Amino acid sequence: MSGPAHRARNRHLVAAVAVLLLASGCATSRVGSLGPAPTAGTPTPSASTSAGPGIPGPSASTAPATAGTAAPAPPSAGTPTTSRPTSLTLELWYVRAGLLVPTRRTRPATVATSRLALDELAAGPTRTEADAGLVTLLPDGAQVSRIAAGVATVRLPEAPDAATGRLREAQVVYTLTQFGTVRRVDFGTAAPTGRADYADLLPPVVVTEPVIGARVTSPITVTGNADVFEATVSVRVVDAAGRQLATGFTTATCGTGCRGSYRLTIGYRLARAQSGTIEAYEVSAADGSRTKLVAVPVTLAATG
After folding, report:
1. What is the Cα 83 distance to its own chain's centre?
2. Is the model more confident about 133 or about 72?
3. CB atoms within 10 A of CB 200
């Protein structure tokens, strides 16, 4: 083909190629595209930086919105996205009749937990605990100077006698080793010691739940540890007049020469709330009497 017809055909081809190139250049690339930018909305007032003592307030989301999807609404002001505990429950080990007895305190949370624990231990038992025979042998001022590699360093004043000094150390060891960062305590007089070094200062039956002075409801869960004959731990609930409301028994995880944990749930019926006692003990194989008894005074809630 030649002449005017050939030139016209070439002009048509050039125009078609130009249109294709222009369309290709204007198309939006799909690689890495985030889609259209989200439409700016009405600014949201900043949330409070604190929703209460020790509780941080919410923070605005910084994640980009997906193309074509509306951005999620920020959390309402005053609604925390995270929270920190505002209270701390401590296990404290006091002394009764020359043996260790556990109880608990709930206090405002603090990062200085070891200091708080020793201060509470030195402060001594409550009136109800003291009436039940609990005392503390730890003097004021005992503090943890350092914690490293699972060992807490504590310096105590000289005790009046060896028995008092050992019980005082046992109180500190059992109280501090409730924290995961402490396995042993260094008193500066010998090698660091742990709970096993004072196991002989535990009574045959220990009740960890409920604690002295607690208000309990039916059914009651009684927990602790014991070293008793055939690992059998008996429990009974007694009202203010000394009448037995309920009784039961369970088997510890170890017994007769070794200490094991136990747990028993026991129900009772009571028309009105009153003081009462949870008793945990061993039944004598010789005469069936209650031996190695531990009494925990509590308030019994009515069952309706």
Report:
1. 14
2. 133
3. 9
Distance CA 185, CA 181 (A): 11
Strands 215-216 and 290-300: parallel
Here the tokens at position 236 are 């009974």
pLDDT (0 to 100) of residue 255: 86
* Helix and strand element counts for the chain (H, E): 4, 15
Measured in whole angstroms, the distance separating CA 219 from the mean position of its chain's CA atoms is: 23
Cα→Cα distances 197→150, 151, 154, Å: 16, 15, 16
Token pair for 150: 């699972």
Give me the helices (H) in the chain, please: 4-26, 113-123, 127-131, 162-176
Contact status, residue 281 vs residue 275, Cβ threshold 8 Å: no
Measured CA to CA, the distance from residue 118 to residue 140 in angstroms comes to: 9
7-18 pLDDT, tens digit each: 555 555 444 444
The DSSP code for 206 is: E
Amino acid at 247: T
Neighbours of 203 (CB within 10 A): 19
Residue 198: C-alpha distances to residues 87, 105, 166, 170 (Å): 30, 23, 8, 6
Per-domain boundaries in the chain = 87-201, 205-300
Count the neighbouring beta carbons within 10 Å of the beta carbon of residue 50.
12
Instruction: Indicate the pTM of the whole model.
Output: 0.72
Through-space distance between the first and last CA atoms of the chain, rounded to whole angstroms? 111
* Cis amide bond preceding 219, omega within 30: yes
The CATH class that applies to domain 205-300 reads mainly beta
> What are residue 10's phi and psi, to 5 degrees?
-65, -40
Outline where 159-302 has alpha helix (H).
Answer: 162-176
